[in-house]
Amino acid sequence: MKPFLPAADLKTTYDIFGHFYTVALASQETASCRSVLEIIDKSCTPADVDKISDRQPDAVFIMMNPGSSQPLVEVNNYIAADQIGELSISLVPTKPDTTQYQVMRVMRYCDWRHVRVLNLSDLRSPKSPEFIKTFTRLEAEANYDAHSIFSPARTKELTKKLPRSRQTPLVYAWGLSEKLSPLIERCLRTIPRKQTFTGLLAEGTVDKYRHPLPTLQKDKLIWLDNMVRQCEA
User: Fold this and answer.
1) Which of helix, strand or coil describes residue 130?
2) Least confident window among 25-34, 57-66, 155-164, 203-212
3) Rounded to two decimals, what is the model's pTM?
């Protein structure tokens, strides 16, 4: 089984940048969001970090939502819901969380220098039940599905973030909740059919891929070992 590399070691190897924004809904409600996360080897980080968005990553992870992800600098980036398709990307240094350290471990063992992280939803919420409740309400009551980069309103943005090469793998890792099914179906309808993908599919399911951060430490180690084996195959 692969050694569980400590976070302190990983922080010296990788830079983390995210694009954070706040969307103003027609109901006067606002929602805090993150549209993308870029994890890149420090030796590859350009002076102008926004240029990372134009680079082709070694892999693209697709997970549930940004969780507790936070910028390390103040961000005042507001956009109206009906203008979401024109959202421009401005990357800022980001505080990594425990899920992102798992991604870094995969990067180290697979010798990947740059991984992009997208999510089924941009809504920032550290607790999964609260996130599920929020996205369900926004879609039902506010008719707002563009919190997801896989919504039709954000096709142009998604095209720029997905790999240009079909050989660059997508890594599905959004978890097992049945309540995510509407978002998962939307995502899979949007992904090009011939795109290479991988992930740890849960037994007895067709679209539920195990999240990098299960509750038990032994399961974290199992996920890491199985994910690296699959990516190296």
Assistant:
1) helix
2) 25-34
3) 0.96
